[in-house]
Model the fold of this input.
Amino acid sequence: MSAIILRNLVKRYEADMAVHDINLNVEAGEFVVLLGPSGCGKTTTLRMVAGLEDVSEGEIYIGGELANDLAPKDRGIAMVFQNYALYPHMTVRQNMEFALRPLRLDRAEVNRRITETAEILGLDEYLARRPSQLSGGQRQRVAMGRAMVRTPEVFLFDEPLSNLDAKLRTKVRWEIGYLHRRLGMTTLYVTHDQTEAMTLADKIVIMRQGRIEQVGTPEEVFVRPRNTFVATFIGTPAMNLVPAVSADANLHAKDFSLPMPQKFRNHVPEGLEVLIGIRPSNINLADSGPANVFAASVRGIEYLGTDALLDLRVGSEELVAEIPAILRPEVDAQIHVSFDMQSLQLFDAKTGQSLESI
Amino acid sequence: MLKPATSEKLLCTVLIAIALAVFLVPIFIVAVSSVKPTPIMFQKPPSFVFEPTADHYINLFTARPFAKFIWNSLLVACGSTAFSLTFGTLAAYAISRIRHRRIKDLAFWILSMRMFPPIAVIVPYYILFKTAGILDTPLALIIVYSTVNIPLTTWLMKGFFDEVPAALEEAAAVDGHGLLATFFWITLPLVAPGLAVSAVFCFIFSWNEFIFALMLTGSEAQTATVAVMSFWSSDAVQWGRIMAGSFIIVIPGVVFVLTCQRWLVRGLTMGSVR
Done:
């Protein structure tokens, strides 16, 4: 049974549609990430699940129960807020106690849970401190602790790492992943950071303008993006999209041609305008000569340590390539490149939909 | 930070000294005069070396029931402060949280209570209270002062409530708390500085008020401010008692403000978000 079911969920503000007909199943124990650019409706969706926003249309089921009209306190959820929302006038211990109070546990059980949670999160030393006496990372952990002590059925995270600096973000990301594997709680997690989504999620839900663009495992959305939005949104640097026309089992771009990859050959019609999707990491340096190797000029280089990004021109097409830094050419050099044909993507130029048969 | 120039420092010191003198000299004169024997009270030049006397204070409490008047003042000031804080705070919370297009009009209507001159309503109040049979009781003054203090408290507290991050109340809601528990355990403690400020304003206004107290009270519910004035009669002006009474009146206000002062610190919300 799914822990959370969203059915035809709609959120309207006056005339604006913030969330547009969302359907989603979150299985028990699953870690689902809502990912999208700001304003895509992911936080609104999360807040509707939490009961902090009214549902305009559609249904929310939590643990099999229709939750539309339940108050937040009756939904069996815990939430970690973007800005942590710790109670500033209470110590860390009191913050957790306050979260436990509605459960009416006896004193010993309250203490046991707080001790246990503090131990898991490494907060033992800070129980007597107030939030203002803690660092950002510690506050973040207190926010998680306050959610965890209640052992809720469902965990909601609203961009929990966005207020942390980059170094700490990586560390806390590991911790969240570790906690989820250890405790196995059902989690709905909102972020605009694709790294968080890719590393943490069992299932990524990519949203844009209030709609779901694709639902899939991190690998699925990376390897088989359903449309150009997902293709360019997932992956850094973004996927290159080259306009081309299909003809004679070939793809003719303005200044070069490629053979149509095998997997598309049977169902991409002749004369269709397409976009060829090539990930920067699928462009390789090559020796001149053999077929499907193209001359390119290097307009710029970004050295990243292990890898380097090349700003290339193949004819008039601008392409970004990611190659091992040690192989990088000079700026303005004339080089040859080939594409990893296995991983090419094709999209309908008009609709932006993937042409891969699924 | 740049160190301010010596001349700037000097200027600041002088200005502060002038300001302090303006406020403190009258209180100093009141304090000195209240223990000065009557014969030398208006001596020119004023003498500051004399044998202090407690006569004025003794007369104050023996000739008239001044203790009772102080009690009345305390009762009225505390009563109105408590009443205004309770209702003003609740109203402010509602105005701050309810999303409705007419809520601003309601807030303005409450503020408009303060816009007409109080003197205009003294006679209607008199008639009302006489009819209701509460003329010359502390209750009458508590009601009158609250009509002034509630709008003040409402507007002050609205500002403080607006500053409490919505996420804190949402967190409490998700943690399983209802509206009342959230209000009393989370929101209210965070606006404590606002409560202190409001309490100080309400108390001082009620304690110092004169006109309403003069018109709406007689011998029973008379407050200290009115009582002091009664030593100024057509026969004689008993300066010693007036000075002694005035000095006593100053004390509760100072004590109250000092008590509230430790709550008047801002920054309680620091560290909650971000």
